């Protein structure tokens, strides 16, 4: 086989995870045209990330491969719940990715020289050891959530101490996580439930418990979907001490600065941008809770009532089946100043001058899109790193507010909209988010920190 470099890129095909690693792949393929890249992902996810008609336009050094998703081995019926699908996938992953790597090596005539994988794929640690190649991992969520995984045992002791031996917590016993370097701003309630509550023997629970132990031991480098400029210095210093190499290459799904808005044309298929053109500057509440999270029916109803009572212009990306939870007649009563869509071009919406606030679940990529648009946030966290992101938004960066009590109510949302859209405090938030945006424009530039770390990554995968 040829001795040229061949990188196998392994995706975790759930939630927002596939997009950052696919974008990193494309950046590396352009920067290192002499390296062969094989992208391994499930057929369903590949069909969304790299639809077959578009693959002819990929760089010539990139090939896309489908791997078994764990539902195709004939030993069980279809998954009844997304969690069950993840379980099946994780069970099949070592064999599926092993077969995919073999196929990629046969096609390329080149042995794989490096594994670049989502950090959730800890099975790649054993694969890399057997293949005697470097294992480079991409951490998609927030860096401070990685610290929670690394210090899972310390946090477990803290939780047991704070709750008299159990793991449950309450508002009167919501202590600081200052015991973890760089997490003094976080509280016990910000810890992802998946870390502390899931004590069964499922593969997901085992994955989450083991990740913080496997990455320091096995990863040649941990690449972060973030910028050093947005994270506490003690946090980054401690993470660097835990890993062989820590690289922050910037947000891989958001551009700083964002691209110019397109002129009104047929490309505005949802009509969102045209609708926004008719609104006053910084007046519109854009509402979207991502592709997975959904507020409870009572929260959806309360949010609708708050928008109506305050007559706040709004653009709400809402799944059709959830619309049944809206107050009866709301669509007709708010038609003059509100718009419901099943999907919105989020980056373009947040960069539009009319967008005044983003009501969000606080997904890490969504947070960066809001910062790129210079838009403060109202935060309704759900799971994973959402709570930690909300804490950073409200108390560290001071570019938004969390909903009172963590639950959307009519009065709480009325207050949040008033603060962000119409108060002096809201003006200060907009100023701060603009300042953070400018820092990240510099960090993302050709001489910024993200470019420097990306260059290190390029050299690593090109020479290992």
TrEMBL record:
InterPro entries: UDP-glycosyltransf_plant (IPR050481), UDP_glucos_trans (IPR002213), UDP_glycos_trans_CS (IPR035595). Its EC number is 2.4.1.-. PROSITE patterns: UDPGT (PS00375). The keyword Flavoprotein does not apply. Keywords: Glycosyltransferase, Transferase. SUPFAM superfamilies: UDP-Glycosyltransferase/glycogen phosphorylase. Pfam families: UDPGT. One of its GO terms (molecular function) is UDP-glucosyltransferase activity. Belongs to the UDP-glycosyltransferase family. This is Glycosyltransferase.
């Amino acid at each position: 086989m040829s001795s040229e470099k061949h990188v196998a890129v392994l995706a975790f095909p759930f939630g927002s995870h596939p997009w950052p690693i696919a974008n990193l792949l494309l950046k590396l393929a352009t920067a290192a045209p002499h390296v062969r890249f094989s992208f391994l992902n499930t057929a369903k996810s590949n069909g969304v990330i790299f639809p077959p008609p578009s693959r002819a336009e990929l760089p010539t050094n990139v090939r896309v491969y489908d791997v078994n998703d764990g539902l195709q081995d004939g030993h069980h019926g279809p998954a009844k719940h997304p969690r069950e699908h993840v379980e099946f996938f994780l069970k099949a992953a070592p064999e599926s990715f092993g077969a995919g790597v073999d196929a990629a090596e046969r096609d390329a005539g080149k042995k794989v020289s490096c594994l670049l994988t989502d950090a959730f794929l800890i099975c790649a640690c054993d694969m890399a050891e057997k293949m005697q190649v470097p294992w480079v991992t991409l951490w998609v969520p927030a860096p401070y959530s990685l610290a929670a995984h690394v210090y899972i045992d310390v946090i477990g002791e803290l939780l047991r101490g704070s709750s008299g031996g159990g793991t449950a917590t309450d508002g009167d016993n919501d202590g600081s996580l200052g015991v973890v370097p760089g997490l003094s701003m976080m509280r016990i309630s910000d810890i992802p439930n998946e870390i502390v509550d899931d004590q069964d023997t499922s593969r997901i629970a085992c994955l989450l418990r083991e990740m913080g132990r496997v990455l320091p031991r096995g990863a040649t480098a941990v690449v972060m979907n973030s910028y050093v400029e947005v994270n506490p210095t003690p946090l980054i210093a401690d993470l660097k001490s835990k890993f062989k190499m820590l690289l922050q290459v910037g947000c891989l799904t958001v551009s700083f600065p964002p691209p110019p808005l397109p002129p009104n044309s047929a490309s505005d298929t949802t009509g969102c941008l045209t609708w926004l053109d008719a609104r006053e500057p910084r007046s519109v509440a854009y509402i979207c809770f991502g592709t997975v999270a959904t507020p409870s029916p009572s929260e959806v109803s309360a949010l609708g009532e708050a928008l109506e009572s305050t007559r706040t212009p709004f653009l709400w990306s809402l799944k059709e089946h959830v619309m049944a939870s809206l107050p009866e007649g709301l669509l007709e009563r708010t038609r003059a100043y509100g718009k419901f869509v099943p999907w919105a071009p989020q980056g373009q919406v947040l960069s539009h001058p009319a967008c005044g606030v983003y009501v969000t679940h606080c997904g890490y990529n969504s947070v960066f899109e809001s910062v790129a648009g210079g838009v403060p946030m109202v935060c309704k966290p759900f799971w994973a790193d959402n709570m930690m992101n909300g804490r950073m938004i409200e108390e560290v960066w001071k570019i938004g507010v969390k909903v009172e009590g963590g639950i959307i109510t009519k009065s709480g949302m009325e207050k949040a909209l008033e603060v962000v859209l119409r108060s002096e405090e809201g003006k200060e938030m907009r100023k701060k988010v603009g300042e953070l945006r400018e820092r990240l424009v510099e960090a993302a530039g050709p001489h910024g920190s993200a470019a420097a770390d990306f260059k290190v990554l390029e050299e690593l995968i090109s020479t290992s």
